[in-house]
Specification:
The chain has 619 residues and is α+β, with helices and mostly antiparallel strands. It folds into three domains: 4-60 and 519-618, Immunoglobulin-like (Sandwich), CATH 2.60.40.1230; 67-230 and 247-294 and 311-359, Alkaline Phosphatase, subunit A (3-Layer(aba) Sandwich); 426-511, Arylsulfatase, C-terminal domain, CATH 3.30.1120. It has nine helices and 24 strands. Strands 2, 3, 4, 5, 6, 7, 8, 9, 10, 11 and 12 form an eleven-stranded mixed β-sheet that branches. A five-stranded antiparallel β-sheet has the order 1-24-23-19-21, with no helix packed on it. Strands 13-14-15-16 form a four-stranded antiparallel β-sheet, covered by helices on one side. α4 (228-242) packs parallel to α5 (276-301). One calcium ion (CA) binds at residues 330, 332-334.
């Protein structure tokens, strides 16, 4: 029987101290754990009386939970914002955030194309470990997340955050109620495009609202009546309004400035002597800026700005599709390459962190892959993060007084807080789609499998002879660059510094796992059919790096069902990497053919309550 890990709905401003009360098993607590007695008939009469109403940390006046708004552009290049040197396209709202907040000069998308970049961003795993490592193409089909893929939304749900994804999800299949749907991966609210390909349609004839396909009939037959990004903006503002009084995560992923460059209005660029595609592209970038500004204005109007962290970034380097000319805009800034390349232009992205009164104005040159997002949000929310992710928390940088350094590029932390630094960053690319400039930059190797590593200022890129990663090292072409001296990756030092190149190739080999086994995290629930009912097994796994205390698991069954606990359901302490497991015998009510079982696991992590939930339908 399938088990789906879910994270609880909760409402803010309700203190949690007693964790689970009134549940159908584990009614007593003891210092060494207790075995709940036969608890038939003790099922809570209504969910409101049970634990689901008591999830969110008490909002102490001095420590209001921080809201998170993560805004991810699609194919916005490093050089396309004024704050990063853009001369032709106007982005005044984001530029102001960059001036007031922390600007990362060395932020990296986790991959040079959408799907793997977004999978890594959501899960904190780099592209040698993540579930989705390639864009959908040909027979390989659409990448999917699984029940084993823990997203930052799921991590925050455990602390009672209200979570929404508005925009492009980017994974298939195009179906509701499956493990790769945002609602199954921690997002309570989803509105927008499910699959990668559908997100290319700016005038869609349908979008998804959670599990429901919503028709947009006015766009049928190629009509361009309702612009998808406008709907996304409306829903994003509505999400902020709806959750103004509770801690929330908004993951806002508009489909701009991706190809095809379509916009209802070229606006300020109408009279430029540019192609229509370039005018529309510039208008898309400016519309992204307007969207960001609109969200900030709404946060300010609702008096939420002081307790909200806004992060603005992009999923990969600039595209050249649909006739857009990235060189007109110098969209890759000082770097070599575009979307699809593992040179810096394909990977390096803007990243701005803004939170008045929390984040000081400044810049940091810490090499910061977007895999750092999950542990950072977890850190700031006081939520456990899985210890087996590749990302590291940069919470220490996002503090008043931390972001004042300009950075020297030498790997020093001076002036940029004390966020841990990565030993190295790893990137993988295997993509059969190719564009002219990207292929020229790759010297005709854009269809070849490639890898890159940055360690300190050293950067190595290597190309396989084809799309098979298992070929011997000597068949790869390796290049080596010194980014400190040569950020544009023009001077290949591989022949001059073979030992350095070999060292980075070893890191590439070590970074890759054909299948990356995850450590258990949160609640899993399984039910096996027995003669008169079910044997139910639940596990609360502490996959974080800190011990949990006061752990408890409880099983909830439909009214009238008989639930008999077979094992202790509490533990004073669950060490990092440990777990609490228990079994129950469940007998359906007479005549009941099917029902849903819910298991909640609760514990205290670093002084704060966390709750995980899993459900299974039995029949
Ligand atoms: Ca993209
Ligand atoms: Ca350039």
């Amino acid at each position: 029987m399938s088990s789906r890990r879910r994270f609880l709905a909760g409402s803010a401003a309700l203190g949690v101290t007693g964790a689970v009360a009134g549940c159908s098993a584990g009614a007593t607590a003891g210092p060494k754990g207790s075995t709940g007695a036969d608890a038939a008939g003790k099922t809570p009469a209504s969910p409101a009386a049970g634990p689901s109403a008591s999830l969110v940390p008490a909002a102490r006046p001095d420590t209001q939970p921080l809201n998170f708004v993560v805004i991810l552009a699609d194919d916005l290049g490093y050089g396309e914002l004024g704050a990063y040197g853009q001369q032709l396209i106007r982005t005044p709202r984001i530029d102001r955030l960059a001036a007031e907040g922390l600007r990362f000069t060395d932020a990296y998308a986790a991959a040079p194309v959408c799907a793997p970049s977004r999978c890594s961003l959501l899960t904190g795993l780099h592209s040698g470990h993540a579930a989705v490592r390639e864009n959908p193409s040909g027979p390989r089909g659409q990448g999917s997340l699984t029940d084993r893929d823990l997203t930052f939304a799921e991590v925050l749900r455990a602390r009672g955050y209200r979570t929404g994804l508005i925009g492009k999800w980017g994974f298939g299949p195009e179906e509701p109620d499956q493990p790769s749907h945002p609602n199954s991966r921690g997002f309570e609210t989803f509105y927008g495009y499910l699959t990668h390909r559908h997100a290319h349609d700016y005038y869609p004839v349908h979008l998804w609202e959670n599990g429901t396909r919503q028709e947009i009939p006015e766009n049928r037959g190629g009509a361009r009546k309702t612009y998808g990004p406008d709907l996304i903006e409306q829903r994003a503002l509505a999400f902020v309004d709806a959750h103004r009084d509770e801690p929330f995560l908004l993951y806002l992923t508009p489909t701009v400035p991706h190809a095809p460059s379509r916009t209802p209005d070229p606006g300020a660029y109408a009279d430029e002597a540019w192609s229509e595609a370039d005018k529309a592209h510039a208008a898309q970038v400016s519309s992204f800026d307007t969207l960001v500004g609109g969200i900030v204005d709404r946060l300010t109007a609702l008096k939420l700005a002081e307790r909200t962290l806004v992060l603005v970034t992009s999923d990969n380097g600039p595209h050249e599709e649909g006739g857009t000319d990235p060189d007109l805009f110098d969209a890759n800034g000082p770097f070599r390459g575009y979307k699809r390349n593992l040179y810096e232009g394909g990977l390096r992205v803007p990243l701005i962190a803004w939170s008045p009164e929390r984040v000081s104005a400044g810049t940091t040159d810490r090499p910061t892959p977007l895999t750092d997002l999950l542990p950072t949000l977890a850190d700031l929310a006081g939520a456990p993060a899985p210890s087996d992710v590749d990302g590291l928390s940069v919470a220490a940088l996002l503090r008043t007084g931390a972001g004042t350094g300009t950075g020297s590029g030498t790997g020093s932390d001076s002036g940029t807080g004390h966020a841990p630094r990565h030993d190295h960053l790893y990137f993988y690319r295997n993509h059969s789609g190719v564009t002219r400039r990207a292929d020229a930059v790759d010297e005709g190797r854009a269809r070849k499998l490639a890898e890159a590593v940055r360690r300190g200022d050293w950067k190595a890129v290597r190309f396989a002879p084809g799309q098979d990663r298992r070929v011997p090292d000597e068949e790869w072409q390796v290049e080596l660059y010194d980014l400190g001296r040569d950020p544009g990756e023009q001077d290949d030092l591989a022949a001059a510094r073979p030992a350095q190149a070999d060292a980075l190739v070893r890191l590439m080999r070590d970074s890759w796992a054909e299948t990356y086994e995850r450590k258990p995290f949160g609640v899993t629930l399984e039910a096996a059919r027995e003669r008169d009912g079910f044997l139910v097994t639940a596990t609360l796994a502490n996959g974080s790096s800190r011990p949990w205390t006061g752990a408890r698991i409880a099983l909830e069954a439909p009214a009238g069902w008989r639930v008999r606990s077979l094992d202790p359901v509490t533990a004073d302490r669950v060490p990092a990497g440990g777990s609490l497991a228990a079994r129950w015998r469940v007998t359906p009510a007479t005549g009941a053919a099917e029902g849903r079982l819910t298991c909640r696991g609760t514990a205290t992590h670093a002084g704060e309550p966390v709750t995980y939930e899993a459900r299974v339908s039995v029949q």
